[in-house]
Amino acid sequence: EIAYEVRGLTKVYGEGAAAVHALRGVDVDVPRGEIVVLLGPSGSGKSTLLNILGGLDRASGGTAQFEGRELTEMSDTDLTRYRRDHVGFVFQFYNLMPSLTAYENVELVTEIARDPMDPGEALRLVGLSERSHHFPAQLSGGEQQRVAIARAIAKQPEVLFCDEPTGALDSTTGRAVLEVLRHVNEELGATVMIVTHAAATAQMADRVIHFADGAIRDVIENKDKRAPS
Ligand code: ADP
Ligand code: ADP
Fold first, then answer.
1. CA distance 17 to 216
2. How much is the pLDDT for 228?
3. Do 106 and 147 touch, CB atoms closer than 8 A?
């Protein structure tokens, strides 16, 4: 029941004197169905790992398996299919289409997904049913992020990747968004990986991976998971 098995993963951006070693040999297992928080200072390599596991970027060396399939050896076509069928993304900025309602933003994804849920169901899961027909500009930041989460889960991905999902929100609104992610994890059984530099986010995690300078310093299982505060 391991979703990701990562061994000796490296990533170098650029070459020669300008080379940046973003990942310096990462080993980690991500159990299926957990909420895993990647915590560490800015520039420590968290997003780089997330992007490689999510099929948005390629590793320079090492291995990364998803459910036993080697991501680092996939063709571009297979990686695109993996991204489309198995994983969802939520970013700091919501990237909603301004000319479409919340419902229509989610529908854009369900129209091309392999096994989508109903857009209304996705919006219900994030607690936004009553705002389905609002446009992004009519919604608060927290509500826009919940639409982005609904869009990401509507294709029923096995894994939901969130890169600083509360980074643009005040702390109260951020907590509510983390609660939505927890609800999604519980309702859909999806593995949720969250990148953050905010230590408070770690309280809601099953497992916290501490990053520093391109490497994992510590992995801590959280036996006493609680609501974000
Ligand atoms: P974090 O998510 O922990 O803030 P990142 O994974 O974004 O860290 O970045 C790790 C390091 O890699 C940083 O030094 C960053 O500047 C560098 N980096 C990230 N993306 C690129 C890129 N596309 N080109 C060059 N350097 C990059
Ligand atoms: P939050 O504290 O969650 O960020 P806000 O205080 O920004 O929320 O907004 C509170 C409520 O007002 C939200 O339900 C939102 O939908 C509504 N709202 C905010 N801005 C607008 C707007 N420009 N037009 C219509 N409704 C809005």
1. 24
2. 72
3. yes
What is the per-residue pLDDT across 153-201, written as a single tens digit (0 to 9) for each?
Answer: 999 999 999 999 999 999 999 999 999 999 999 999 999 999 999 988 9
Q: How much is the ipTM here?
A: 0.74
Q: Report the pLDDT value the prediction gives residue 140, as an integer from 0 to 100.
A: 96
Distance 131 CA to ligand 1 centre (A): 36
Q: Which atom of ligand 1 is nearest to the CA of 211?
A: 3
Q: What is the pLDDT of residue 225?
A: 77
Determine contact, residues 220/190, Cβ cutoff 8 Å: no
Answer yes or no: is the C-beta of 139 below 6 A from any ligand 2 atom.
yes
Given ligand 2 and candidates 139, 145, 169, 171, which is best to mutate, with the most ligand atoms within 8 Å of its CB?
A: 139
Q: Is 171 in the pocket of ligand 2 (CB under 6 A)?
A: no
* Residue range 115-134, pLDDT digits in tens: 999 999 999 999 999 999 99
Phi, psi (deg, nearest 5) at residue 116: -75, 160
Buried b (16+ CB within 10 A) or exposed e, 189-224: ebbbbbbbbbeebbbbbbbbbbbeebbbeeeeebee
Q: What is the pTM of this model?
A: 0.88
SS3 at position 80: helix
Question: How far does residue 137's CA lie from ligand 2's centre (Å)?
Answer: 9
